[in-house]
Amino acid sequence: MLSIYNTITRKKEEFKPINLPQVNMYVCGPTVYDYFHIGNARSFIMSDIIRRYLEYKGFNVKFVMNLTDVDDKIIKKSIEENKDSSAVADHFTKAFLEDIQKLKIKKADIYPKATAHMHEIIDLIQKLIDKGFAYSVDGNVFYDVSKFDNYGKLSGKNIEELISGARIEINEEKKNPLDFSLWKKAKEGEPYWESPWGKGRPGWHIECSAMSCAHLGETFDIHAGGNDLIFPHHENEIAQSEAANGKKFVNYWIHFGFLNINNEKMSKSLGNFFTAREILKLFSAEAIRLAFAQTHYAGPLNFSDELLASAEKGLEKLNNLAEKLDKEIKKNNTSGNVRAFDFNKFKNDFESAMDDDFNSPQACAVIFDFAREVNRAIAENENLNVKFYLDVKEFLEKTAVGVLGILDFAKSQPPPDDSLTEDLTNLLIKLRTDAKKEKNFALSDKIRDELKSIGIILQDGKDGTTFKVIKK
Ligand code: AMP
Ligand code: ZN
Which CATH number is 351's domain given? Predict the structure, then answer.
């Protein structure tokens, strides 16, 4: 039985989709004004692991992630760079899709864009005005929070608390300080769309209500995002969708904990801000995924170089095993000894971990225990039947590859039979050894890191340095 911690009920609940085996899932995606950072990457990777596990369990998942492509930050950037705001959004949408792929995140079924859903957004705002939940003032439209019973039910706060706690800009046009924008009147030079209230653009919250409903229906199974979105973004999505449709909006709310860097909040001004792109130059996607999966999605995660280096080290065990499996499978020894091995125990352990609110740290521990036991079996028995290796590979394909995405069999191939690569790499290894002898560690580290960024991993051992080619 799969249970999920539901933010809105503050309880772990048995997961019951509306329309078995279909699961409709919506995750708040990026605002495409910059390359996404490693904190965003955590939310994207953990939602990918959740989606993959639902698929592993046989659900038919429809996965939607929106792209916010009209927003203050995009407009600001377009002014700074003297470009059209759609050119900024297009550039970073393309970059987003490239980085998602490099992180081995499965493509969403749909990436709806706000600018392509203006009709739905305008219709939804009109519906809210017609039902008395919204009001227009001089080309702006606001949601009237006082009209919605239970405003604050997701964040667990009442209206008075929210007013006193929120940093709300003074706006004479609003009836109540918590009222929020559904439609913003166009300012000089900003992109705009025609609407019944004049030229303008939508607020951020209404985009998600309109796009989730357009693609997943008025009530759907799972809505996820970082926990910074609980208030006001998701609270406002509930208020909008439930007021307009008169129905429950979402059955399960999942929120991801924040990623900090060396125990500090990541921010550009602190100089500890990293894009996923930058980190991917230094570490493999599998190491990033393992580092994230080893912390439960809901808790905070402290990110550091050491965390990734230790994930990379942990992965060596799995990669070495994968390499060994491929070699043995190629040999195809059908007359070797058949070895009894309790695959079911590991399968059950993996599933119980993931069934318990997607406990991926426990699931990773099961994979490493499994690898250790397999290595022991291999060490004890030199002449094993190929069936054993095939079964091991199948288990890893389903779990470590299929659900967690921390292993890629295509990457753990032996180095290519290419003598030029070998000679050049050995030459660089020699230069690095010389640099180390001269205590020029900046150069020796640079050689190691640059080789790594093109997929050549150096391994220092007692007898010198060897290398391994990893497919990117
Ligand atoms: P944004 O582009 O800022 O709207 O964020 C896109 C997604 O990343 C949202 O689901 C955010 O909640 C999430 N997110 C932003 N910053 C972090 C962080 N430091 N750690 C984890 N998730 C984050
Ligand atoms: Zn959203």
Answer: 1.20.120
- Whether ligand 1 lies within 6 angstroms of the CB of 30 is answered as yes
Do residue 117 and residue 162 come from a single domain? yes
Instruction: Determine, yes or no, domain membership for 11.
Output: no
**Can you give the residue range of the structural domain that contains 430?**
419-469
Q: Is residue 6 part of a domain?
A: no
Q: What is the pTM of this model?
A: 0.88
Q: How many domains does the chain have?
A: 3
- Count of CA atoms in the C-beta half-sphere (13 A) of 261: 16
Question: Could you tell me the two tokens for 210?
Answer: 């309109």
Q: In this structure, which long-range contacts are made by residues 47-50, counting pairs with CB atoms below 8 Å and at least 24 apart in sequence? A: 47/224, 47/254, 47/256, 48/104, 48/105, 48/106, 48/405, 49/289, 49/293, 49/297, 49/358, 49/360, 49/403, 49/404, 49/405, 50/25, 50/222, 50/224, 50/254, 50/297, 50/358
Tokens of 335: 């007359």
CATH code at position 139: 3.40.50.620
**Ligand 1 centroid vs 77 CA: distance in angstroms?**
19
pLDDT per residue as tens, the chain (472 positions): 999 999 999 999 999 999 999 999 999 999 999 999 999 999 999 999 999 999 999 999 999 999 999 999 999 999 999 999 999 999 999 999 999 999 999 999 999 999 999 999 999 999 999 999 999 999 999 999 999 999 999 999 887 777 776 666 667 889 998 999 999 999 998 999 999 999 999 999 999 999 999 999 999 999 999 999 999 999 999 999 999 999 999 999 999 999 999 888 888 778 888 999 999 999 999 999 999 999 999 999 999 989 999 999 999 999 999 999 999 999 999 999 998 999 999 999 999 999 999 999 999 999 999 999 999 999 998 899 999 999 999 999 999 999 999 999 988 665 556 778 888 998 999 999 999 999 999 999 999 999 988 888 888 887 788 888 775 5
Looking at 216, 249, 277, the residue that finishes a domain is 277
Kindly state whether residues 186 and 107 are assigned to the same domain: yes
Ligand 1 atom closest to the Cα of residue 226 is: 12
Pick from 27, 38, 40, 230 the residue to mutate for probing ligand 1's pocket: most ligand atoms within 8 Å of its CB: 40
Residues 424 and 404 in one domain: no
